[in-house]
Amino acid sequence: MSIPVKSPHLSNPIDHRLSVAPMLDWTDRHCRYFYRALSVHTVLYTEMVTTGAILHGKGDYLSYNKAEHPLVLQLGGSDVKAMTECAKIAEQYGYDEININVGCPSDRVQNGRFGACLMAEPSLVADCVNEMQAATKVPVTVKSRIGIDDLDSYEFLHTFIEQVAQAGCQHFIIHARKAWLSGLSPKQNRDIPPLDYARVYQIKQDFPALAISINGGIKTFAETNDHLQHLDGVMIGREIYNSPYLLAEADQQVYGVEKEVISRQQVINLMADYVDSYVSSTLEQGNAYRNPRAWHILRHMLGLCNGLAGARQFRRYLSESARADDANGNTLKEAFAKVTALNEQT
Question: Which domain does 319 fall in, by range?
Answer without folding.
Answer: 264-345
